[in-house]
Design goal:
This protein is mostly beta strands. The chain has a single domain, classed as 5 Propeller (Tachylectin-2, Chain A), CATH 2.115.10.20. The protein contains one helix and 22 strands. A five-stranded mixed beta sheet has the order 15-19-18-17-16, with no helix packed on it. A four-stranded antiparallel beta sheet has the order 1-2-3-4, with no helix packed on it. The longest helix is centred in the N-terminal third of the chain and has 7 residues. The radius of gyration is 18 Å and the shape is globular. It binds beta-L-arabinofuranose. The site of beta-L-arabinofuranose has 13 residues, from strand 1 and strand 16.
Length: about 350
């Protein structure tokens, strides 16, 4: 939804139809990456603020400066804000725009992964470490070598290997890269060309680096062909997430300018993944970003919308709702507002 059109919308009426309410309302939060660590739910969101930066297509108005970790004893319990877990001023290599983070736990240590822009305006992904799931996190002095673009999401497979999924086009800068190399002249492929895919790399044993060269993932259509750049309802835009259900790998993502959260399935963490359908229809606000997490034998979608801020795209609020699977493993599409 464009910023110009929001004044005509009756947000009170929409909020009454919302299937879920914001988990917290004292701060704006977005891009929720949810995990269960030691039986408790921890949510690693962006912390939205009004940084006073005018709206533009690069997303500079998303001027976030820090992260707060939220926690819940269960999905119906009160959500606790555990305060500032990491601030950009403490990250030597980063200057601004602390966008969508994720976290992982290994051997009792917690790792917060986050994208931010360097002084030269280029996004990279960093990691910060803590003994506690809520921080404070101590950042590494440099970004992860070979990292680029935005939206890191870390998946732990059943064999204990960790994989990072990342990338986002437009403001997320993925279109500037081919084969992990940046060139200012690179742009999005033409409409009839294969869309750019998300990127995956296994993490090193110490969780601080990539263990391999990042690889581009293919998202295929029903005929086994890579989805095209002009297929805006299905092509990858940003907000990678991976989860495993009944032995299958489910890669989910946002389609950006068509505002859908979609998913594709595959047989291993590297894909290819075959497009299956829509998980979440458009929410209030331009962006859509989610995570999928199993809590007490049920599956939940953590997502955000801009209902609380009455449609301000960079002031979002995280929400949660249950996901239902059909017998064949397909996911029932969620409408965030009742008819
Ligand atoms: O929060 C800033 C950006 O907006 C995220 O990195 C994207 O996924 C979108 O939600």
């Amino acid at each position: 939804m464009s910023e110009e059109s929001i004044e005509h919308i009756d947000f009170d009426a929409i909020n009454e139809k919302a299937i879920s309410q914001p988990l917290v309302s004292h701060i704006y939060t977005a891009d929720p990456s949810a995990h269960v660590f030691d039986g408790k739910i921890y949510i690693y969101p962006s912390h939205d603020i009004d940084a006073g930066i005018p709206f533009n297509d690069n997303g500079d108005h998303f001027g976030m400066e820090d992260y707060h970790v939220l926690s819940m004893d269960n999905v119906d319990a009160a959500t606790v804000d555990n305060g500032v877990a990491l601030h950009v001023k403490d990250v030597v290599w980063a200057e601004r725009q602390m966008w969508a983070p994720d976290a992982a736990c290994k051997n009792g240590k917690y790792y917060l992964y986050f994208p931010a822009k360097r002084v030269n305006g280029i996004f990279q992904i960093g990691v910060a470490i803590s003994d506690s799931p809520v921080g404070p996190f101590i950042p590494e002095p440099e970004a992860i070598e070979g990292s680029y673009s935005i939206d890191p999401a870390v998946f732990e497979d059943e064999d204990g290997k960790f994989f990072m999924y990342f990338g986002g086009i437009w403001g997320g800068q993925l279109q500037k890269y081919r084969n992990n190399k940046y060139a200012e002249t690179n742009e999005e492929p033409l409409e009839k060309e294969p869309a750019l895919g998300p990127i995956v790399a296994q993490l090193s044993d110490d969780m601080l680096q990539f263990a391999e060269e990042p690889k581009e993932i293919e998202i295929l259509d029903e005929n086994g062909k890579v989805i095209l750049a002009g297929d805006n309802n299905r092509r990858f835009f940003e907000a990678s997430w991976l989860h495993k259900y009944n032995g299958k790998y489910y890669f989910s993502y946002s389609t950006g300018d068509t505002h859908l959260i979609c998913y594709a399935t595959g047989d291993n963490p590297y894909g290819p993944f075959t497009y299956q359908g829509i998980i979440l229809n458009p929410v209030i606000g331009w962006t859509s970003h989610h995570s999928i997490c199993k809590v007490d034998e049920k599956w939940y979608l953590f997502y955000h919308d801009s209902s609380l801020s009455k449609g301000v795209t960079h002031l979002r609020s995280i929400k949660v709702t249950e996901i239902k699977y059909n017998e064949d493993g397909s996911i029932v599409t969620i409408n965030p507002y009742r008819e």
